[in-house]
Each structure stands twice: as C-alpha cells, then as structure tokens.
Amino acid sequence: MPAAVTKPDLIARTTQDFAKLSDVLDRFPRALRLVADEDGVTPKDLVGHRAHWIQLFLGWYTDGQAGKPVDFPAPGYKWNQLKAYNADLRQAQAGLDWDAARALLDANHARLMSLLEGLDQAALYGGPMKGARNDWTTGRWAEAAGASHYRSAAKYLRGRTRAPRN
C-alpha cells in the first residue's frame, strides 16, 4: 500500500487501521495475551510497543518544531540497534498488564489524531519533518508510527490466534 500523501487520506487510513486493530484486540483471546512467541514477545508487549512508538514520533515532532536535537530512534540508540531497543522497551514495560497497554495505545492514538487534525496539508506533507535528517515528511513519519504499525500489529495478532500449520 503506497503511503498517504494528503491529510484526509492520512486521517482516514489512521482511523480505519486503528479501528481494525482495536477490533482484533477486543477479540484477542485472554489466554494468549501473555504468551510469548519464539522471540520472547507477547501480544501485550506488541500493544505496548505500538503505543510507545507513537509517543516517540510525537516527541520527535515536538523536539524538531522546537529546534531541539532529535534523537532517532531514541537517546543512546541507532537505527541498527532496534532489536536491543525493543528488548529494553519490553523490560521497561514489563509491569504493564493487557489493560494498561491497551489504555496507553488508546491514549497515544488520541494524541496522534489530535496532532494530525491540528496540522494542515503543508505542515504534514510540505517538506521534510524538522529534525528528522531525511526527506520523510511529518505525514509519512506519522503514518509509520500509526497506521503502518496498526496494520502490522493486527496481522501479527491474527496470526497468533491461528492454529500452527504442520
């Protein structure tokens, strides 16, 4: 699916993909919520991860707008260290239960939507996001942190509910 290039498309895509993910989360079996996969990741971890990456994006945007240095992806980490970063994130979020992870995702989605609704087309797609050090627009970063992550999470979670194939 090509990336959105207009504010209405970005808002529609983010809203639709969050609704689909929410439906999957609402129906996700309680017995599987804390069961780790072969990489040690639980469905609860995935929900917390998606919530956190929205928070990261919002921080990047805010810092860039303020003219502050933007730490991509996070302070002390480089993009080639995402596996370690995500493992550290799982450890930091170990105390979250399913309901807390869902609440964090819902709250951060609302914050993301508030930002998207408050920005105009030029702010979203008129040029690179300030502080990003690449050509991605604010809208593209928002889609990566929101709709794209929602789609991949829903696909992963649906797969976790299917019986293993032999």
TrEMBL record:
SUPFAM superfamilies (UniProt xref): DinB/YfiT-like putative metalloenzymes (SSF109854)
Pfam families on file: DUF1706
Domain of life: Bacteria
Protein name, entry field: DfsB family protein
Naturally occurring in which organism (per UniProt): Cribrihabitans marinus
